[in-house]
Amino acid sequence: MLSVSPSPRSFLAVRHICHHHVRTRRPLLLLSAPRRAFINTPRRNLRAIDLSEKHLANMKVNGGRLMEELHRTCAFGTGQRWGEATTDTGMSRLSLTDSDKQVRDWFVDATRALGCHTTVDQMGNIFAVRRGRRDGPATFAGSHLDTQPAGGRYDGILGVLAGVEMLRTLVDNDVETEYPVGVVNWTNEEGARFPISMVSSGVWAGVIPLERAHNLQEVGRGTATMKSELERIGYLGTTPASHEAMPMAAHFELHIEQGPKLEATEQKIGVVQGVQGYRWFTVDVRGRESHSGTTDLANRADALLTASKLILHSHRLAARHDALATTGILTLSPGSVNTVPGSVRFSLDIRSPDEARLQLLDDTIRQHFAAIARGGDEEANVFADADAVRGLPCDVSITEDSRSQVLKFDAAAVAAVRKTAERVDAVGGRVIDMTSGAGHDSVYASVRCPTAMVFVPSRDGISHNPREWTSAEDCALGAQVLMGAVLEWDRSRAAAAIGGDGAGSN
Amino acid sequence: MLSVSPSPRSFLAVRHICHHHVRTRRPLLLLSAPRRAFINTPRRNLRAIDLSEKHLANMKVNGGRLMEELHRTCAFGTGQRWGEATTDTGMSRLSLTDSDKQVRDWFVDATRALGCHTTVDQMGNIFAVRRGRRDGPATFAGSHLDTQPAGGRYDGILGVLAGVEMLRTLVDNDVETEYPVGVVNWTNEEGARFPISMVSSGVWAGVIPLERAHNLQEVGRGTATMKSELERIGYLGTTPASHEAMPMAAHFELHIEQGPKLEATEQKIGVVQGVQGYRWFTVDVRGRESHSGTTDLANRADALLTASKLILHSHRLAARHDALATTGILTLSPGSVNTVPGSVRFSLDIRSPDEARLQLLDDTIRQHFAAIARGGDEEANVFADADAVRGLPCDVSITEDSRSQVLKFDAAAVAAVRKTAERVDAVGGRVIDMTSGAGHDSVYASVRCPTAMVFVPSRDGISHNPREWTSAEDCALGAQVLMGAVLEWDRSRAAAAIGGDGAGSN
Questions:
Q1: Which of A15, A68, B149, B408 has the greatest number of CB atoms lying within 10 Å of its CB?
Q2: A34 or A118: which carries more pLDDT confidence?
Q3: Which of 377-396 (B) contact A at CB < 8 A?
Q4: What is the DSSP string of A54-114?
Q5: Are the beta carbons of B402 and B190 closer than 8 angstroms?
Q6: B154 in helix, strand or coil?
């Protein structure tokens, strides 16, 4: 059931592509903590595989240190202030900006200081790997350090920081895993600056062509591409962005829920079963510019009036199909108070946990949008034109920019999360199964390796907002479950390998 | 009936503020046309006041020269191409940009070459004045050289260029007016770059405070102000921008109709009786940013969805009140595909030829906008929410940025236009009375002097669009009527003055 054993050849591939930083062959755990007295004395560290359930339960992440490090690194790209406390600000750390470079540099330094080897691939994904007793692909904890332009301190950031805290905890406890474990920071997960979300895990998974990703232009009026910005900030690696060059044994992701369910039901840990599907579109409406004072309503081809109808109608159709529809970007031309807009471009994001329903919504939107823009008498226009003057027709075109299918995570990986969550005393059994409303890098990771996610509560369900907030206690619980799931996976691999070697195990 | 005689003191004021270019005291008409053989010989030119009706009718503007000059100066700020011919492009000459500076420099050079004295005031308004036989405020032809970002070659431009053609025709025919005549180029008439339209004639009229105008910031993300841009391009004059410093005997403006009526009724000249009123607002909608995948429809305070409802509803209310409503600018924040917008700002322009109806529309919009944003069950929400999920309330605020009252032009000035239009053979009596849908600098000019406007047809009624087009024949007819009205006014002034001097006249 588990696909944990890479061929020796693929592991060699991983070795060959280690170019970005010189691979240190020093023993691990050489850091300066006082407890490491016999630094030059060969010694056996604790093997994760030998840890008892009780020992595992007692090996705790340091929640205080996790939060301190999280807030410290949020100095890179600090956003809007919303409260009085020092940390009461949001984040504005768009992918591949100067502040993203700063936090990347921190990530590389921090994981190297913990004895990890770091690799940067052609999409700027950073893989920090700590050696195990055996060679093989690492079991990864992963998420992203980029944020929305008006985002918070937890979305993505918590997942990466909890991964680093996992590494620190293993180092502190002298625990040696059977296989390597690692932390990955994926580039431009948000899709906020370069308009495909999870684009770099998508390239890694072989789903999105490298060239398409490299040529993505930043939204707005800038002309920078992902490639030019990767180059500019020094994170354009030469390692292929590919699951073949950098295979993973498994991918676990801790994330805030970004919705209200855990809080509302007083649960602490969500065991994510899968992710709802979504499709992103660019909608172009073309009318005709005209003077606002001399063109009567009947003689206008008003692209913004039409866009307003389309946005309202997409919302109405989403409600009918028990789905979601959102327009987050809208630009218009020419943009003058007394000129009827001649063209409008807007984004449309539709989502559903059911693929067939999503397809039906997609089809219906295409039909109705065309009918509304044309100004026909179809049902779609009844609401839009009620009691108003109908103008001249506009043209509308809809381009699909990206899609993410409805997804079910690997059953064994999900089971590892649940088992761990149930084992953590402080969680107290407050564990529920959930479906993720948002896309995550785990979507693409799951294409190539067993993948699962851990959710922790979001206050008021608020996310993509400076006020996004999760308590320090919940962050620590989530980090504990994340580390537990990674170790659980490592132990299972070892057991399977021993089984596979015919050596037997209990 | 006519207020044509300034006090000697006010004329002195005009003389004193002539600072920008050295006032040349050379005789007029010194240019190099071959007909001016006796250049140093004192001679009597033709007095406009002595011209017969027939002579006046025969003195024709040069339509070919007018169009050649118009298209030549449209090289400054050429816009979007829409056809194959060299001149088949629109204009994009926003006020006080480099291209606006270029056309201003041309205007100053061209009018000085015709013997005019030019004065630049504190708003960058340029007054080019040709001496008459007597001193006194000039009778002006005026309009503007700035355009919309995606504008055409005629709006405003035709009016100024026809003024220059008038000066050339007077020079060519050695006609000397009784009082000075002039051409004025008003700054930022469009309000497209600095968001108060006709702002500089407004300052001249004493309606808009100079400081407010100077501090106007350009729309979009720039930080330039009118004052900083006037300074930058060298058109910040020291002459007060005031009807006291630069009085006008009358203001005549030739303009394209910008609507379909003349063309549809096969008329050639519109004698403009007045201008419909308008009000410009900035509408701010504040909701809450949230994640598009994890926030269900009921838990969203979606500022763009609310703005869409408001825009649609403004259109519906305008239809009910036989008025116009237009949103030409819309910006939102934070602007990410998968974030529900937390705030939206949009412009709203409402117009009506009836002041009471305009006020009622204004009041109704304020009431209904608040109700829609609140999400109440009022009638205003019936259409907006039909068959959809109602989200959380948003806040809405409405700020009035400028207004222009419903206006009736001076009866004598209007009569001068009609008399002239009826006299031009090529017009063939195709003259109708009209109301202007758009605001023009003539609105503010009319506050301080007798004012009237001449309209010529706009193909398909299209304006504020690169395809805006008026035939060369119609441009020439308009210029002919413009010159005729200015001369008619000059002759009336002279007759009134003679009457006033007790000298009598026929």
A1: B149
A2: A118
A3: 383-384, 386-389
A4: HHHHH----HHHHHHHHHHHTTTTEEEE-SSSTT-EEE---TTSHHHHHHHHHHHHHHHHT
A5: no
A6: coil
Closest-approach residue (CA) in chain A for B339 = A328
Cis peptide before A341 (omega within 30 of 0): no
Report the C-alpha gap between A349 and A351 in whole angstroms.
Answer: 7
List Cα–Cα distances, A358 to A134, A277, A278, A350, A361, in angstroms. Answer: 44, 7, 8, 8, 5
**pLDDT-derived band at A56, boundaries 50, 70, 90:** confident
Closest CB to A439 among B260, B293, B351:
B293
- Which residues in chain B touch residue A340, judged by CB atoms under 8 angstroms apart? 326, 328, 464
Distances (CA, A) of B143 to B200, B224, B443, B470: 11, 24, 11, 17
CA–CA dist A332, A289 (Å, integer): 11
Alpha-carbon dihedral sign for residues B49, B53, B58, B60: positive
CB B451 within 8 A of CB B410: yes
Nearest to B285 by CA among B163, B199, B176, B395: B395
Q: Does A150 touch chain B (CB under 8 A)?
A: yes
Partners of A389 on chain B (C-beta within 8 Å) are 315, 319
Of A220, A297, A351, the CB nearest to B318: A297
Measured CA to CA in angstroms, residue B462 lies from A270, A293, B88, B126, B154 at distances of 59, 11, 14, 28, 11
**CA–CA separation, A108 vs A467, rounded Å?**
28
Tell me which residue in A150, A338, A340 faces B342 most closely, judged by beta carbons: A150
**Mutation target vs A (from B82, B286, B289; most A CBs, 10 A cutoff):** B289
Closest in A260, A336, A384 to B299, CB measured: A260
Distance (Å) of CA A286 to CA A370, A386, B324? 12, 22, 21
How far apart are alpha carbons B153 and B146 in whole angstroms?
10
A312 reaches B (C-beta below 8 A): yes
Phi, psi (rounded to 5 degrees) for B167: -60, -45
Closest CA to B497 of B188, B250, B176, B179: B179
User: In chain A, what is the straight-line distance between the N-terminal and C-terminal CA atoms, in Å?
Assistant: 19
**What residue of B is the nearest CA neighbor of A80?**
B334
How close is the nearest chain A Cα to the Cα of B496, in Å? 37
Phi, psi (degrees; rounded to nearest 5) at B110: -65, -45
What is the least distance, in Å, from the CA of A278 to any CA of chain B? 8
**In chain A, which residues have their Cβ closer than 8 Å to the Cβ of B463?**
290-291, 294-295
Residue A414, classified by CB atoms within 10 Å of its CB into exposed (0-12), middle (13-18) or buried (19+), is: buried
Q: What percent of chain B has pLDDT over 90?
A: 75
Task: Give the model's pLDDT for residue A405.
Answer: 86
Q: Are strands B324-326 and B181-185 parallel, antiparallel or unpaired?
A: unpaired
pLDDT digits over A381-437, tens only?
655 555 667 889 999 999 999 888 899 999 999 999 999 999 999 999 999 999 999
pLDDT band at B13 (very low <50, low <70, confident <90, very high): very low
Q: Mean per-residue pLDDT for A371-378?
A: 81
Which tokens belong to A74?
């949020």
Can you tell me the ipTM of this complex?
0.70
Query: Any bridge partners for residue B141, and if so which?
Result: B183, B252
Domains of chain A and CATH, by start: 8-34+46-276+406-500 (3.40.630.10), 278-404 (3.30.70.360)
The mean pLDDT of chain B is 88
Which residues in chain A have their CB less than 8 angstroms from residue B191's CB?
Answer: 336-338
pLDDT digits (tens, 9 = 90+) for A65-84: 999 999 999 999 999 999 99
Read off the amino acid at residue A38.
Answer: F
